[in-house]
Amino acid sequence: MGQIIIIKDNLKTLKNLNVLFLTLFKKDSQKRNTKQKLIKKTKSFTFIMDKQLDFFNNLEQIQNLEWFGKYGKNFKKVGKWAINWNRQVLQNVGGYYSEEEYKIGLWKELNKNYCSYIPVFEEGEYYDDKKIGKWKYLQKNGNMYYFTGIISGGGYYKDDLKKIGKWIELQEDFWSDAQVTYQGEYNVKGMKIGLWDINYCDKNQQNYQQVGGGSYNQEGQKKIGKWVELWEKFRSDAKVIYHGEYDIKGMKTGMWEIKYYQKNEQQYQQIGGGTYDQEGIKIGKWIELDEGFWGNKQVTYNGEYNIKGMKKGRWDILFEGRLIGGGFYSQQGIKFGRWVELGEGFHIWAQIIYNGEYNTNGMKIGRWAFVFEGKQMQIFFNYWNQFQWWWII
Prior knowledge:
Low-confidence stretches: 1-57, 142-147, 387-393
Helix content: under 10%
CATH topology of the domain at 281-393: Histone H3 K4-specific methyltransferase SET7/9 N-terminal domain
Oligomer: single chain
Structural class: mainly beta
Radius of gyration: 25 Å
């Protein structure tokens, strides 16, 4: 399957994807219709450049995953159920259902993100459809270029489905470029307590190394004291960490530093950060990362927050430390006046820059121009933010 690029971060409808599914499943219309219904249950997606984790995994499972087994009375699953992946049986994967369609006994299941990039299984025991006892992570045998870390993880479930004791967990969006695990302890209430380590295995390596962590209070789930956290889009080409402190209420306080792993220097160096007040609100001067920050898009935003945690005054946009854009915010945190902004796909090989004006309501107005590879295009926005455009030759 070719590369899929979708622009919007939050898709309210998947109607535009019908063409894709027609292509994927044109050989079997019944399968296509069923699987279109399944994918429409997904509400939102998180994108990392042109790699989209949840959506990509769902697509690959929709295309390749087939459960097979028997149905009993009232069309309930009973007995042994197993999996075909890409028309081949996955050995020793699956388990048994009771007559009430409860999972029972030993099961080996696909991790929710399972695909060719994330060949990870979870194995443990069910009792009346509830996980109990020891559960562990397993990875597929064989040579896997995209996935090399050796996973040793898992932990125990109580009878009430709550985790207890020591655990090693995979992060929510674990994949080949973000092999991150969390290691620590749960109390009897199923809440995280004490010290938790964050470990990472670099691409094409096998061993995990600690890159972050911190402590939870004894009541559970509240972070306290000093923490080193990973950026939500941390991966092999965007190793970004946040270093700061939580107060006794579990809120960020004081100075927080943003650090980026410089390959040339072989160490983390500070590239941003700022201050939180006692209510966990950003105040004063900050240097923040672009939401699409990575090796070829080292873009930061430099400006100031007011006491209400809203951007104010002049904010500069920098690329690799060089000023390339910016503009002004009102006291209400709304853009106004002349702005120079980055295009959607801005990076080192596609430095697209927009130049135009916002009105006092934060809407683009008048003539906007952008430059891409030496060519200039102009866009005209009317009062309702509708636009027309043309190239300038």
